[in-house]
Amino acid sequence: MMLKLGRCHRHVINLLVIILLVFSFALVLAQQPASSQNGMVATAHPLATRAALQMLQQGGNAIDAAVAAAFAIGVVEPDGSGLGGGGYLVFYDAQQKQGYAVNFYQKASSEINNINFDRKTDRFSAKAILVPGNVAGLVLALQKFGTLPLPVILEPAIQYAEKGFPIDGTLAQIILDQVILLQADPETAASYLPDGFPLMEGDTLRQPKLAKTLRNIAEKGHSGFYEGPIADSLVAKVTRLGGALTHADLKSYQAEIVEPVHGTYRGYAILSAQTPQAGPSIIEAMNILEKADIKSMGHYSTSAPTLHFLAEVFRRVYADRSAYLEDPHFSQVPVNELISKALAYERFKSIDMKKPVPEKYRQTPPVDMERFKIPHRPDGITEPLPPDEASPKDPSIDQPSLLRHESVSDFETIPPEGHTTHLSVMDKEGNSVSLTQTLGTFFGSGVTVEGVLLNASLANFSETTRVNSLAPGKMPRSTIAPTILIKGGEPFLSIGSPGAGRIISTIVQVLVNIIDFHMNLQQANDAPRFHCQKFDDFLHLEDRIPESVRTDLTKAGHNLRVYGAFDLFFGGVQMVQFDASTRTFYGSADQRRGGTAGGE
Questions:
Q1: Phi and psi at residue 258, in whole multiples of 5°?
Q2: CA-CA distance, 86 to 67, in Å (whole number)?
Q3: HSE of 487 in the Cβ direction (CA atoms, 13 Å)?
Q4: Stated pTM of the model
Q5: Interacting residues of 469 by C-beta distance below 8 A, sequence separation 6+
Q6: Is residue 246 predicted with pLDDT exceeding 80?
Q7: One-character DSSP codes across 407-475
Q8: Which residue numbers are catalytic?
Q9: pLDDT for 6 beyond 70
């Protein structure tokens, strides 16, 4: 009996070992990014990724694929983006070795001052709607940089809207969470709450009115949305519900092709979204981090000093963003100063590696910009700064134990929550696109017109400060930051994320994972995340950050708020990488969302 029991035990042990090996192998596979020799796509939904790949297979370039995916994701992930929102894309032309950006974020109506918007009661209503820019931006990008005709680009989105698609668990949960908003508008309720009940995972979502609108755009382009019957319907319903939108607002809306904001980090060139988007904040953060030897300090998920240091950097970056970034058409924004190495050095010196300074996050002061005045060109466009224009780096500063500096003061309130989507594309020639688009909040205003959910982005304007204050025709500030990294003239990385106020901190953490800690894309995406900013009372983190690290952070003076292992709160990074040494493309879709990465 003892002999049989022993054999039984050995069988059980052998079985457990096999299970453990299989699990370990699966874990290793899960940490490997998708790969391809002919381009790569990463989006927040498999059907959007499929739409992009279809364009590449038909001979299209990265812009064709990105625009097709952007239209498609607005259909299959309607809570995050769509025709009624806006966004921004950064494009790197691998042949010209030149970066471009297309800004198509939402703008305030010419009649915006006549609606008496109340942030407390009107944030999720027609009064929160701004003039949508998605159609203008995507059509312009295709015209300037694409190769395929608009009807071909729009066909996947039209099919998804017309024939429907099974909704995933993420969308089903968001529908359930937003039932009250979705109930408020009959047309919206008809799509997401048929017979009064929310659609559930596996149910088919069909949007025939949206398909009809998409066909109109395919036929007529820009004017198919901003003029004619669709424009009539948009103006009629928004104004009837108390919002501000005129025919002139729609007809005059034009997306802009601008130069991306430029920066550098440890030998990589950075191209990101210009103000009023958050590209300057990404570059400022990387500039500050460059002053320290982060790798020797240890990864932030296992080292409390490293996490503390990054948290202090984020606080300062968010404070500076709030104090200075806004629509450059309405003021001279000090972008040159914010992205300078000299300013980064000053912000770096203000950090104490032992404790939060100031003690309260909300008291984090913005930098004194008068000390960093840099001449601007007469046309108001900022010039990128050479990487060595600032005071030289002091080698001793790489030692974190030497940081002992202080500062003080107070400011604003936490920015509004939001929901967004991001996609990244590289084609086989190395042309790269990083594209982020948004409705402002989950399902935007909740108002649907001709199948189009409209944004709720007016709340992105600041209520109590001159910077980023509401004005007719003005674009509000946002945290979206589509970004491309270049190394030696070759594209290296296309990256971006949704996540409202967490977008900046999320992107920076992933960049640190890839560049400083040499993680592959999936490892960098899967690593635990945290968030800290000026307009909050907590340092937010995922529970995979060990208890020992959390204890040390608490002892240092941080107030923690702990989330799940892979929490949607911390965004959903979609990124694509090119390895020039092997001519291989890699892609990663954040498992915090339901996306996929795939190559030709």
A1: -130, 170
A2: 13
A3: 13
A4: 0.88
A5: 461, 462
A6: yes
A7: -------PPPP--EEEEEEEETT--EEEEEEE-SSTTTTS-EETTEEBP--GGGSBSS-STTB--TTPP
A8: 420
A9: no
